[in-house]
């Protein structure tokens, strides 16, 4: 399925919001609900890992396809239906500009097309989606393919914020874009306080930390200065961060159900 065809299937975030949820109807708390969080379908990773060519391999993704199809069937069987299904980054394995990226993307979009149309998809960018060190060009590609790289939306009185965590990791090649996200986030957290939303939940690919805010810097977390700044900012607004640990078994497109009450 081409990107143009996919635009008619997915609700892409545009203008820093998601039109699947009209904010004027969703800002009021209406009682508990749940959503599904998944991460790292990462078509192409398993072959790359098996050959030890994690940076350049990944010319097969049949196993990832089957696992994602299995996840889609499981989500579709849920009753009552989840409010949405969020994928927290590393949608495909091939980095920007690498071989197989187009094919991996088209196959993932084809599989996700089978998600129940009443369950909106929410896409979060990861390092394999925009690059370890993103550029204006890689951000533009992601936006054209999957939608805005950061945005907010309301569901049932809860404010959800999607962040591009690569800006928090290394924005040296796109400092103006990081600054724009920082300013936008401050505005959104201010809105959360003014409207006294029931909850504010943040989705991002790289978690702030894995076990403790004081843990050592690692590939799978954000640096101490960044995480402490973000934790302070989010905690003052009463926001909760939901990141993705990309190590070990969590690489396997696992999904979790989260309820809001």
TrEMBL record:
Looking up InterPro entries in the UniProt record yields: Calcineurin-like_PHP, Metallo-depent_PP-like, MPP_CSTP1, STPP_CPPED1
**GO MF assignments:** metal ion binding; protein serine/threonine phosphatase activity
Name its co-factor(s). a divalent metal cation
Q: Which domain of life is it from?
A: Eukaryota
Q: Which SUPFAM superfamilies match?
A: Metallo-dependent phosphatases
Principal localisation: cytoplasm
Q: Which UniProt keywords apply?
A: Cytoplasm, Hydrolase, Metal-binding
What's a GO cellular component annotated to this UniProt protein? cytoplasm
Q: Per the record, what are the reactions this protein catalyses?
A: O-phospho-L-threonyl-[protein] + H2O = L-threonyl-[protein] + phosphate; O-phospho-L-seryl-[protein] + H2O = L-seryl-[protein] + phosphate
Q: Which CDD domains match?
A: MPP_CSTP1
Transmembrane stretches, by residue range?
Answer: none
Q: Where in the cell is it found?
A: Cytoplasm
State the EC number(s).
Answer: 3.1.3.16
Enumerate the spans annotated as Calcineurin-like phosphoesterase domain.
73-209
UniProt cross-references to Pfam families, sorted A to Z: Metallophos
For this protein, the record's PANTHER family field holds: METALLOPHOSPHOESTERASE, CALCINEURIN SUPERFAMILY (PTHR43143), SERINE_THREONINE-PROTEIN PHOSPHATASE CPPED1 (PTHR43143:SF1)
Q: What is the protein's known function?
A: Protein phosphatase that dephosphorylates AKT family kinase specifically at 'Ser-473', blocking cell cycle progression and promoting cell apoptosis. May play an inhibitory role in glucose uptake by adipocytes.
Similarity-based family: Belongs to the metallophosphoesterase superfamily. CPPED1 family.
Q: What is this protein called?
A: Serine/threonine-protein phosphatase CPPED1
* Gene source species: Equus caballus
């Amino acid at each position: 399925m081409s990107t143009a065809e996919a635009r008619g299937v997915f609700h892409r975030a545009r203008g820093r919001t998601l039109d699947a949820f009209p904010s004027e109807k969703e800002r009021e708390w209406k009682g508990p609900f749940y959503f599904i969080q998944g991460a790292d379908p990462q078509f192409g990773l398993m072959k790359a890992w098996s050959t030890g060519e994690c940076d350049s391999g990944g010319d097969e993704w049949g196993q990832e396809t089957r696992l994602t199809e299995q996840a889609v069937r499981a989500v579709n069987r849920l009753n009552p239906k989840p409010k949405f299904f969020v994928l927290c980054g590393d949608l495909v394995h091939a980095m920007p500009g690498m071989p197989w990226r187009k094919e991996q993307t088209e196959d993932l979009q084809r599989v996700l097309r089978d998600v129940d149309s009443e369950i909106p998809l929410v896409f979060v960018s990861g390092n394999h989606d925009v690059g370890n060190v993103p550029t204006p060009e890689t951000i533009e590609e992601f936006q054209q393919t999957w939608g805005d790289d950061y945005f907010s939306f309301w569901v049932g009185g809860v404010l959800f914020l999607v962040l591009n965590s690569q800006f928090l990791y290394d924005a040296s090649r796109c400092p103006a874009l990081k600054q724009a996200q920082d300013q936008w986030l401050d505005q959104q957290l201010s809105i959360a306080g003014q409207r006294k939303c029931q909850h504010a939940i943040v989705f991002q690919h790289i978690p702030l930390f894995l076990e403790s805010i004081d843990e050592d810097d690692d590939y799978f977390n954000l640096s101490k200065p960044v995480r402490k700044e973000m934790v302070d900012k989010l905690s003052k607004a009463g926001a909760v961060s939901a990141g993705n640990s990309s190590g070990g078994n969590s690489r396997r497109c696992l999904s979790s159900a989260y309820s809001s009450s």
